[in-house]
Design brief:
107 residues; mainly alpha; 2 domains; 0% strand
Length: 107
């Protein structure tokens, strides 16, 4: 593959990605989603956050093993408890990070 073909491929992929994302933004007001889909979309931010955090919690032990006494696991459990009690995302994030930093500073 020549250098020109590679740059044309990058340009085509970039334009395709831009067009796909623009279509959702541009046609959002004209598109009416079913109520069940709108309800399902409210859970997307929480599921994305869980997908980002869970791998580091699960692989927090020695050699990638799950350890229930690791700082990350304990902080995740504390954050889950705060989320369950308060149902507030900011309190959940702040409490989880505070517990993690406290446990890491204690050694």
């Amino acid at each position: 593959m020549s250098e020109l073909e590679l740059w044309l491929l990058f340009l085509a992929v970039g334009l395709g990605t831009f067009a796909l994302r623009l279509s959702f933004i541009q046609f959002h007001a004209q598109l009416r989603l079913p109520a069940v889909l709108n309800r399902a979309l409210t859970y997307v931010p929480a599921s994305v956050l869980a997908a980002l955090v869970l791998p580091s919690v699960v692989n927090s032990g020695v050699d990638g093993e799950l350890s229930l006494l690791s700082p990350r696991t304990l902080a995740a459990l504390a954050a889950a408890l705060v989320a369950w009690k308060t149902k507030n995302i900011l309190f959940t994030l702040f409490s989880g990070m505070a517990v993690l930093w406290l446990l890491q500073s204690l050694g």
